[in-house]
Amino acid sequence: MRTTAGLALVVPLAACTASGGIACEAGPGWRTVTVAPEPDRAARVRLELPVEWRRVDTSACEWQVTAYGPPGTDACDVAGYPVTLHEADVFDSARQAGLITSADGRWSGHVVAGGTVVAVGGTDRATTRRVLASARRAADPDPEVARWRGRDTVDGASGVTAVLPHDPRAAVEVHPGRPDCAVERTAVRREPGRGWSAGLCRDRVVTVTAPTPALVQVVRETVRGW
């Protein structure tokens, strides 16, 4: 039997209902779960999931992973888990973190939150985006990712566009001047007083800021025209 180390305990917050009873922390139809890694791991990770999704019991499977899905999810079908969590230092992907793509109408992507990768696959675009954009370390503020705007022009002079959530802390800025790019994508870094940021540099210099690294990653991959 093989295992993926480091993500041993999942602690859901109080279950919620769409109306009445216990309040839904993540909004009607959604709940917030906290993934508690082993003691030698970094901060816990929180993410929002559809309220009916639960931890998939993979204890009897060849691969034991931390996974979530709706009722009826095949416990041992590794490719069929809607949500999986992995240690970042052993996760390998050719795609950019935050990029959400479609194959046969099923959407997928991944983000990095602290030392953990949250991967989503095989579900609709809105669910994929919300789960990925909600991922954060327990120490990070909760992002507002339930509602998203359409594609907006963020700079009229350059024509750069992006898709942003209805979270006033998330922003895309286009900087004046001629680009002198060492790399096209800069690493996500903490911005004191502003949360987190990452840059794009090609024909334009663009900075994406948001309250969490995962939200920076998701918004950055929507930027066009840079």
UniProtKB/TrEMBL annotation:
<protein>
    <recommendedName>
        <fullName>DUF3558 domain-containing protein</fullName>
    </recommendedName>
</protein>
<keyword id="KW-0732">Signal</keyword>
<feature type="signal peptide">
    <location>
        <begin position="1"/>
        <end position="23"/>
    </location>
</feature>
